[in-house]
Structure formats: C-alpha cells, structure tokens
Amino acid sequence: MKIEAEIENLKKILVDDEKFYQIPDYQRPYSWDKDNLSDLIDDLVSAYLENKQETYFCGSLVLVNNESDSRFDIIDGQQRTTTFTIISCVFRDVYLSELGPKAKDFISSSIQDKYEDTKRKLKFLTNEQYQIDFEETVLKGIDFKSTKHIEKDFPNNKYLQNAHYVKGFLEEKFTEHKIKPDDFVIWFFESVVLTVITCPSQDSAIQIFNVLNDRGMPLSSIDILKSTLMQKLDGKEDRNAFKAKWESINSNLKFSDFDLDSMLNTYLYYKLSANPKNRLDKELISIFSKEGKSALEIIKEIGDFSQAYVKTLNEENKYLYCLKYLKHRIYWVSIMSTALFTNYPNIEELKKLLVAYYYQNWIAGATVARIKQASFNILKLIKSNAPVSAISTEMQDGLKKYSTTKTFKEELEGSWVYGRKWDRAVLLLVEYFSSDDSKQSYIPIGSKLHLEHILPQNPDDVAGWKSTFSAEEREKWTNSLANLTLLSMRKNIQAQNYSYDKKMETYQDKDNVVTPFLITQYVIKCGKWNIEELEKRDKYLRTRIMEKLDVF
C-alpha cells in the first residue's frame, strides 16, 4: 500500500465511508480548551456567512489502517476529529427538532454505525477513563446543565466541558446572525474539508506528521513576501538597499528578543483592521498592490512601524505591564503600535481604556471572538484619528451587549478566584498601582511568582485556623480574592500551612528579606487574620480594582 492523500469533506470522512477511527494509546490526551473552540466556531461561522459556496479548509488528518482493530489509527488530527464529533453530538442534543432528514442522517452517521448502535465512529485507546467519559457523557447524550463555572462543575472531563462551551458558542452565533441550524449542519458536513493522508505504516505516518509540523519549511510567508517585494526592484542598488533595510529591521527586533513574524502579523492587523482571510504574504501583497507603493516605500513603512512595535513592547508603563498578561496579545499590541505609529494624540487615555476593556472581558470569561471585532473597530478609529470618546463608546457598546461588566463584578465577588487564569494578573494590577513609582519594573508571571493562601487550603488543628474559621467560612473565603496574596516561590514554600503569626514571620524575616509585594506587606500589618480582616481586604482590593477597570 502506498501513501494516499485526498481532500475530503466531513461527510466523506465521518458519514459516507465505512471508516472507523481510534486514538492510539501513545497519543496525548484531548486538550482543546475554551479558546480553541471559540476560534474554531468563530472561523466556521465566518466562513459560512461570507463564503458559503466555497469549501473551508480545516487542516490535515494523518491515518494508518489498523487492520487488526478494523479501524484507522489517527496519528495527526485527533484534536480536530474529537472536536468535530463533540460538535455533532451538540447538534443532535440541542437542535434535533429543527433539523430535516438529511442533517439528522449526517449527524447520526458521524457518531455511530448505521446498523450497530454501540459501534462508535471514534474511540480512545489512550486511557480507559477517557473512553468511558466520552461514551457516557457525550456520545450517549449530553446532559446540559446551567452553569457559570463549567471547568469547576465538570472537573476532569474535557469532553463534557467542551460540549457545554460549543453549545454556548453556537447559540450565541446562531442568534446573532439568525442562522438556521439545518442549513448550517448541512454546510458543516459538506463544506468543511481536510487533507486526509492514509499511510501504509505507523513509521511512514509519523514521518509525514513530522514533515507537516516541521518549522524548518523551505519557504515561509515572510520569505515569499520578501522575495515578491524584491522582484519589483530593477536596479542592484535598490535591491541592496531593500535587503539592508530588511536585515536592519530583523536585527533590531532580535536585539529586543522579538521576532519578525509577530511584528509583521501586527503590521498586517494595522493595514487590514479586519480578520485576515489568507496567508500573511497574500494579504499584504494584495494591500500593497492596491496602494501602488514602491517596494522601497513599503520597506520604509514596515521599518517605521517596527520601531513603534518595539517601543510599545519595551515601554516601562504599568498599564502596558497589565496588558502583557493577556493571552491574545496581538489585539492590544496592534492597537498600541498603530497609535504610536500614527501619532494618536490620546495614547495615555487609550492605555487606561484598553486595560479596563480587556480585563473586564477576561475576568468575565469572554472568548477572543467577542473582543476581536471591537479590536478591529478600535484600530479603524485610531487610524481615522477619532476622539478617544469614540473608542470608549465602542468598548461600552460591546460590554453592554453581553452584560460583561455585570459578570466581571460577580466573578470578582465570588468565592472561587484561585485557579482562574487571571488570578495573579488582577493582584499584580493592584500591586502596580499601590505605588507612585512610575518606573516600576515589569513582574513576569512565572514559576517564581506564587499565589499564597493566607488562610491555608488544608489547615491543621495545631495552627489554630479551624478555631478561628468555621467550615462554612473556610468554604466561602479560602479561594476568594481577599484571601490571596503574592509571594516569591521561596517564601511560599517556607510559609506552608503555618499559623498566621508564623506566616507573618516568614513573609518578613526568612532569608532576612521582607516580601517586596506591597499587597502582602498590607497583610503583615493587619496583626491578625479573621473574618473582619478578610472583609476589609476584600473591600480594599475590589475598590482598587474597580478604580482601574470600572471606568466606563
């Protein structure tokens, strides 16, 4: 058998063919999270709305025919395949009454064999518990619960967590764009395509996988862009000038530990102010062609923008420090770089608004799809030199539309802050603005920065915590914002589950160094730790946070 490659839609992959799939035992567990799902659903819906007649390419699927199991082992593509199956189950359990026979048949056949109800299209060999969870909580039927804390309420079950996320994303998009579920389901199976590569052996499949994922590709988008621009130059002198400028840009970026690829993607966002639909080189070449600029004019503009990009990321500024903790940094970096590049007059006020807007969305659990269009709109406003009040209005409209401010406040007031992706970032925001030092250094979130429970998570009787706090009080306060503070890893290890007095000694005296964190020094000055102090600190922290985030 030779290696075969075909572009196939989901109908052929999951519905038509008598193919059944399994995830081999050596594969990593299913790991897609809320952001991965948000990006996928957003891209699918955008493709459906904007290019409904065209196919939507969604990556590759590398398979090996495992004849002994009468299934195909998935070597690459397990995350997508598992997610597509979860989406099918959500279609079935949420929209079945709105679907016609064709869509219903697509869904049913993508989940299980037409003739054997217990024979599933996809199964896991990675871990017996994974297969049980997938089978019992998703394939057999999803019991959707009304919950604000999906990961907390469904621990250790990625499949059920993601089914709830998919349901929420689909309902939001279908309502917003008035999408008919029946039409979308049929489009999903007929128009979403993958490159399916079937290999004769596991060795050849892994070799194909490595080639597909090899970063050392012979030509990247950047190489193609550079080559295309240089081809527009006739004289050797101009070509050398272009090449020298290109290398200068790259060297300056490397000097600050930045890369050309990220900068050019930020530049693309500045030029496009919309979601890119093609590769970086295709998008930029199309823009340059419409502008009619020479290659030397283009490289000069890229160089000037690169300087604004580097300045944005290197600036010592507390608001920018806070923005650096955001996962999807391209949005705020493109906005700030554009503001510097275009000499936008209200940059300081813009920084404050960006922190408030993005942090409210982050704490409220908003996905990237929710902030994406607003970010593009802000870019357009900056490029048109609109007043900062117009930017504030754009942000307010988005926050009101999804009741984001209400949700963000509820999350901060809740009993479950520890373990959230923003827990240390929001305390660092308070830390930065607890000092008037305008040249304060950036504090990276890494292994050396630890989140300390003042009232320990697992207190013992000897330390006296259980006599100070009842079980109900510990349940309410242990993982709340008020009970958390910042420490270096070393001091956290030293503090352990000690009593309050012994913890304070550790915070102050171990290694003859007082903790540098101002918000932790506040705890030292309290002199005791009880419900009264927790309530005072809760009010203090939330007041300081609201001063920076509740500004609209």
Quick summary:
With 552 residues, the protein is an alpha/beta fold.
Task: Write structural notes for this entry.
By secondary structure, the chain is α/β, with parallel strands linked by helices. Helix content is 60%, strand content 9%. It is built from 27 helices and 8 strands. The protein has helices at residues 10-16, 34-50, 78-95, 101-111, 128-139, 150-153, 158-177, 181-191, 202-212, 221-231, 236-255, 260-272, 280-291, 295-314, 318-323, 329-341, 347-363, 368-383, 388-401, 404-413, 423-432, 465-468, 471-477, 489-495, 500-509, 518-526, 531-549, and strands at 4-9, 21-23, 56-66, 71-76, 122-124, 192-199, 449-453, 484-488. The protein has a 6-stranded mixed β-sheet. A hairpin with a 4-residue loop joins strand 3 and strand 4. Helix 11 (236-255) packs parallel to helix 14 (295-314). The model is unreliable at 214-219 (pLDDT under 50).
Mean pLDDT: 89
The portion of residues assigned to helices is 55-70%
Give the number of helices: 27
Oligomeric assembly: single chain
